[in-house]
């Protein structure tokens, strides 16, 4: 069968890598359910279905792929959802019950998948995913790093992030022109920010949209000039602050 690529997806063909990804899930016992995003032709799916300690669900936007999966993995059929993940409301399937998230994510929507995960973080204690290495590096980067940015801060505010392993282009069909990596995100036990989240997000995005400028300049819309000028803290640049410091800044600002 000739596979169609949703979002330009590259399909994993290395069975050893697929098994490593499936075995990287750690907190499935908390949820009893795993949702795979974009299973394609089931390379990862078969390893997930082999586990008896959780139920595997899958959401796939490609009708041809759904037909293929139903034919070749009939055990998945009752839990196979024909839907674009970005348009999918997990509560329609899981209600308020938790589930783990996994996938070889289409690279050109992978950041959107991460942000959607944040929106449903109350239901998602863990995620294991394959990303373009550039995106993976950004997620796990610590403050001070060259690729540390908005995604780093927002994901690390709620999840512990881990870089698990790199994956060569030859592990895919067709081979991508970029390097790939698998990361794991484990939700923190206390994942409440301690500040207004809308303010937090706005401060983070405003700061990094002018990342070469000192906070003294980027935070003018939020904080009085006399405060900005009186504290040397505001001479810092956005990439030098951890997520906790952005919480501190958000608490200085009235909710929007």
CATH architecture annotation of the largest domain: 3-Layer(aba) Sandwich
Put simply, the count of helices is: 12
Q: Return the CATH topology of the largest domain.
A: Rossmann fold
Q: Regions with pLDDT < 50 over 5+ consecutive residues?
A: 1-6
| Category from helices, strands and their pairing | alpha/beta
Proportion of helical residues: 25-40%
What's the Cα radius of gyration? Answer: 20 Å
Query: What's the structural domain tally?
Result: 2
The succession of helices and strands, N to C, reads: EHHEHEHEHEHEHHEEEHHHH
Q: Numbering strands along the chain, what is their spatial order in the largest sheet?
A: 4-3-2-5-6-9-7
């Amino acid at each position: 069968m000739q596979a169609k690529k949703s979002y330009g997806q590259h399909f994993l063909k290395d069975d050893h890598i697929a098994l490593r990804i499936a075995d990287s899930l750690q907190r499935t016992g908390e949820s009893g359910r795993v949702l795979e995003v974009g299973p394609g032709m089931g390379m990862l799916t078969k390893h997930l279905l082999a586990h008896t300690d959780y139920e595997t669900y899958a959401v796939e936007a490609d009708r041809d792929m759904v037909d293929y999966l139903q034919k070749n993995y009939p055990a998945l059929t009752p839990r196979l959802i024909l839907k674009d993940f970005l348009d999918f409301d997990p509560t329609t399937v899981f209600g308020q019950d938790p589930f783990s998230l996994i996938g070889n994510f289409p690279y050109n929507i992978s950041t959107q998948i991460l942000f959607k995960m944040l929106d449903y973080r109350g239901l998602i204690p863990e995620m294991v995913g394959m990303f373009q290495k550039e995106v993976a590096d950004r997620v796990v980067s610590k403050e001070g790093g060259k690729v540390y940015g908005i995604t780093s801060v927002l994901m690390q505010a709620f999840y512990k992030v881990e870089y698990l392993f790199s994956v060569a282009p030859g592990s895919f069909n067709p081979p991508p022109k970029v390097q790939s990596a698998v990361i794991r995100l484990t939700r923190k036990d206390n994942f409440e920010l301690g500040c207004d989240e809308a303010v937090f997000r706005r401060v983070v995005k405003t700061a990094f949209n002018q990342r070469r400028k000192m906070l003294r300049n980027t935070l003018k819309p939020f904080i009085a000039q006399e405060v900005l000028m009186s504290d040397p803290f505001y001479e810092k640049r956005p990439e030098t602050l951890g997520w906790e410091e952005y919480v501190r800044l958000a608490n200085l600002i009235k909710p929007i």
